[in-house]
Amino acid sequence: MKNGLMKKLLSFAAMVFFSVLITLPSHAADFSASEMKKMSTFLSNFTEVRMGDFTAEEVLDPKNPAEMIRFGIWHHWLNTFRRTIKPSNDNDRQYGDVMIDGVYVKESLKRYFDYDLKELPSVVDPDDPQRYLYYSDGVRYYFNGADGEAVYYAKVTKAVRLPDGRIQMTGYIYNAEEPSDISGSFTALARPHTWKGKATWAIISMKTRYR
Predict the structure, then answer these.
(1) Spatial CB neighbours of 151, under 8 Å, sequence gap ≥ 6
(2) In this structure, what DSSP letter does residue 31 have?
(3) How many CB atoms lie within 10 A of CB 116?
(4) Distance between CA atoms of 109 and 113, rounded to whole angstroms?
(5) In 3-state terms, what secondary structure has residue 136?
(6) Considering the entire predicted model, what is its pTM?
């Protein structure tokens, strides 16, 4: 009797254990391969403009807007050049050889940071305050274009939904032209965000350990 009762108790305990195990959330199943591919594209918008170590709070500091304006401009330079970048007018070439409408800079910050830029501040060169890096006339930005630097993308290899709803993404950064050229590994945090009716993410922070 005792042996039979013991077997029944062990069998019941095993059944309960595996039932609980099956119902526990699986981080590996939090996101599909296609979703992590979208995350890779999302984070590549930062790494391609050489942003690998930052917090959104730092970037969006209104007292020091240089990095947010740089991101807003160069994102379009790399991704929407033909549509958004135009040659400067002759009278404005003193501020840069090309220009971009400020609405596109605002669009980038809203899409990737969920941040509403109210005004368009000019940005001066910290080493030469008499020279503008990005000059604003209140409507558009003027700046000098540049080409030739290697572009680096992000590859998300793991993504976990944290208890507070944020998404932790980890992976590595690689040269877009030479994928075997890996420059480092990263951990990024983002939160769910809707932009123009589509589900996406707003970046919170990104930390990269470079090789």
Answers:
(1) 48, 78, 175, 176, 177
(2) S
(3) 8
(4) 5
(5) strand
(6) 0.84
Sign of the four-CA dihedral 72, 78, 82, 86: positive
Write out residues in the chain with pLDDT < 70, as ranges: 1-29
- Quote the tokens at residue 191: 């939160």
Q: Token pair for residue 199?
A: 């589900």
Whether the Cβ atoms of residue 100 and residue 85 lie closer than 8 Å to each other: yes
Alpha-carbon span 52 to 191, nearest angstrom: 18
Q: Which two tokens mark 58?
A: 């730092």
Residues ≥6 apart with Cβ < 8 Å to 84: 76, 100, 101, 104
The residue assigned the tokens 């470079």 is 210
Q: Tell me the C-alpha distance between 202 and 109, whole Å.
A: 9
Tokens of 40: 């890779």
Which tokens sit at 64?
A: 């020091």
The token duo for 167 is: 């998404």
Summarize pLDDT for 139-151 with one digit per residue, the tens. Answer: 999 999 987 789 9
